[in-house]
From TrEMBL:
<feature type="domain" description="CzcB-like barrel-sandwich hybrid">
    <location>
        <begin position="73"/>
        <end position="184"/>
    </location>
</feature>
<dbReference type="InterPro" id="IPR050739">
    <property type="entry name" value="MFP"/>
</dbReference>
<dbReference type="InterPro" id="IPR058647">
    <property type="entry name" value="BSH_CzcB-like"/>
</dbReference>
<keyword id="KW-1133">Transmembrane helix</keyword>
<protein>
    <recommendedName>
        <fullName>CzcB-like barrel-sandwich hybrid domain-containing protein</fullName>
    </recommendedName>
</protein>
<keyword id="KW-0472">Membrane</keyword>
<keyword id="KW-0812">Transmembrane</keyword>
<feature type="transmembrane region" description="Helical">
    <location>
        <begin position="35"/>
        <end position="56"/>
    </location>
</feature>
<dbReference type="Pfam" id="PF25973">
    <property type="entry name" value="BSH_CzcB"/>
</dbReference>
Length: 310
């Protein structure tokens, strides 16, 4: 065969014919790729196992307010101007004790006039016991006096029962309308209640005895664990929530859509925050997280697999 008809050079053919064993495979990849592959495989295996055996919880989140149980709001019986406030927060009061006085100039003047007329008629009656006209006038005037005393009493705000003044909402000279809050009374050592407003869609998953976590405003990441005492039977809207909270808190909370009211007792009147023991106060606001369900992470990522596990 001519030299120019050969595919391989003569030197290459001679080397191939004389070689006794093959050389090693030429390694072009850096050495770290070997252990990097096994590390990546281990990480993938860990996450696959975590997805199969791990669980994830879902929570219902909403605003909450701390209220004192047995809290009674004492309101004005009639409209008028406050002339004096007789109590202060933290003061113990007895049943019937005067809490505040309203301006009662006309009522006081009417009563004094009736009393003066009554005394004059009574003197006439004593002079002539047979005068029936005077007797009838006395009976009529006595009824007018009772009405005047009742109207004068309406200008006073009294404690309906014994307790401790927790809040005073009025000041001297302030004009109040009928039904407006004057003071709030609580029983001494009244327990604290947390009222949460959670999304209405979570109502079927909430039950008495469940747990929820409270984070008070101003105490970030300081969580208080609570046991649910009561779950509302019906959903309520934003307007109903505002009526329930009252005018003093209605504007402090924002509720969107239907919610369910969930109640829980605080284990004590104090909570721990940053290593300090602090007291709850009526009206404190916060956020509540209530766990509604738990499921495997894999089922959350691939919902279609739920039929295999149920």
């Amino acid at each position: 065969m001519a030299e120019h008809d050969r595919i391989f050079r003569k030197e290459a053919l001679d080397y191939q014919a004389g070689a006794k064993e093959q050389g090693s495979v030429l390694r072009l990849s850096p050495s770290w790729t070997r252990w990097g592959f096994w590390l990546l495989l281990a990480v993938v295996g860990f996450y696959v196992a975590f997805g199969i055996f791990g669980w994830i919880s879902q929570y219902a989140t909403g605003p909450a307010v701390v209220r004192m149980e047995d809290r009674l709001e004492v309101t004005a019986l009639s409209a008028g101007r406050v002339t004096s406030v007789e109590v202060h927060p933290g003061q113990r009061v007895k049943e019937g004790q005067i809490l505040a006085r309203f301006f009662a100039g006309p009522e006081q003047a009417s009563l004094e006039r009736y009393e003066h007329e009554f005394e004059l008629l009574l003197m006439q009656r004593m002079r002539d016991l047979t005068n029936e006209a005077v007797s009838q006038a006395l009976n009529s005037l006595r009824a007018e006096m009772e009405l005047a005393r009742f109207q004068l009493e309406q200008r006073l705000v009294r404690a309906p029962h014994a307790g401790v003044v927790s809040d005073v909402r009025i000041r001297r000279g302030q004009h109040l309308t009928e039904g407006e809050m004057v003071v709030a009374l609580v029983q001494e050592d009244s327990p604290m209640q947390v009222i949460a407003m959670l999304p209405g869609g979570s109502r079927p998953l909430l039950a008495k005895g469940g747990t929820m976590r409270l984070e008070l405003e101003g105490f970030k990441y300081q969580y208080q664990e609570l046991i649910i005492d009561q779950v509302g039977d019906a959903l309520v809207g934003p307007e109903e929530v505002r009526r329930y909270l009252g005018p003093e808190l209605a504007e402090s909370l924002t509720v969107n859509g239907a919610v369910v009211l969930v109640r829980a007792h605080a284990p004590s009147r104090f909570f721990e925050a940053d290593g300090k023991r602090l007291a709850y106060f009526d009206g404190m606001l916060g956020t509540v997280d209530a766990r509604v369900k738990s499921e495997r992470i894999l089922l959350t990522i691939i919902p279609g697999l739920k039929t295999l596990f149920h």
